[in-house]
Design a protein that fits this description.
Blueprint (H helix, E strand, L loop, with lengths): L4 E3 L2 E3 L3 E4 L6 H11 L3 E5 L14 H4 L6 E5 L6 H14 L5 E4 L12 H13 L3 E6 L3 H10 L3 E4 L13 H10 L5 E3 L5 H9 L4 E4 L1 H4 L4 H21 L21
Helix pairs in contact: 1-9, 3-4, 4-5, 5-6, 7-9
Length: about 260
């Protein structure tokens, strides 16, 4: 239970992973990520410049790969072929970087994942030597299939991307956690610090978020709150909560040695 947070053979001190989009500028991005304590940062290759445009400011200047582990993702991809092509581009831009986040969306309105296309892309990427952290639905069967393909982390949604609705189906998350031999990281739907704490209390290995921090009224302050929530939730999981009871006839204070 006290095992380190390890992804693709590398240990990390922080179980909070954060995105780099939706901030007002790169300076705010850096300040929020520093406050979060995150070591892994996700980058939407189709939306953020990491060298595609030599004439525009690059995220690499504000978040050097020497300080952070980049997690290129396929946000905005709706087919397996598009996702694979995007991550191969990321590998070229980042000098052979293998750790990636796969997401293949199935609906432009809800951004719900297309699990069939996700499975297809995962097979191709794993065979091509990528270390694939995969965003998926909270279906335990699909999660098991993705692990069997060889994905190095399973990342089920808590609720829809950008919704801030928190964890809507904790029972499915528990099923995924109990069956998985690779890290399980809640991805999408976290809205505030209590959501992150609940995810960790359930036994998740980590939490990934972007919108909850970037669109907070004070992103830097919220990033710090998320850091504390993830740490507190992990400690509570390791400690083991007391059993739930409808009521208890056992008082909290001692019943022996009472005065009088």
């Amino acid at each position: 239970m006290t095992a380190p947070f390890s992804i693709a053979g590398r240990d990390y001190g922080s179980r909070l992973l954060v995105g780099t989009g939706k901030y007002k500028d790169f300076a705010e991005t850096r300040a929020a990520i520093d406050a979060s304590g995150a070591e892994i940062v996700t980058v939407a290759i189709r939306r953020v410049n990491i060298g595609q445009d030599a004439n525009a400011p690059s995220l690499l200047d504000f978040l050097p790969p020497s300080e952070f582990t980049y997690l290129p993702n396929t946000a905005g991809c709706y087919t397996a072929d598009d996702a694979v092509r995007t991550l191969r581009l990321a590998r070229e831009l980042l000098d052979g970087h293998k750790l990636v986040k796969l997401e293949v969306l199935g609906d432009q309105h809800t951004l719900f994942p297309d699990v069939r296309q996700t499975l297809k892309a995962a097979e191709t990427l794993v065979a091509d030597g990528f270390d694939v952290m995969v965003y998926t639905s909270d279906d335990p069967i699909i999660a098991r299939e993705l692990e069997q393909i060889g994905c190095c982390a399973i990342m089920p949604l808590a609720s829809l991307i950008g919704s801030g609705m928190g964890i809507l189906n904790p029972w499915n998350l528990k099923l995924i956690i109990e069956q998985s031999k690779v890290p399980v990281i809640v991805d999408a739907g976290v809205g505030t610090a209590s959501d992150a704490a609940i995810a960790m209390e359930l036994g998740c290995d980590g939490v990934l978020m972007n919108t909850a921090i970037a669109l907070a009224q004070n992103p830097v302050l919220m990033a710090g709150a998320m850091k504390k929530a993830v740490e507190a939730g992990r400690d509570a999981f390791l400690a083991g909560r007391m059993p739930r009871k409808l009521y208890s006839a056992s008082p909290s204070s001692p019943t022996t040695g009472m005065i009088g």
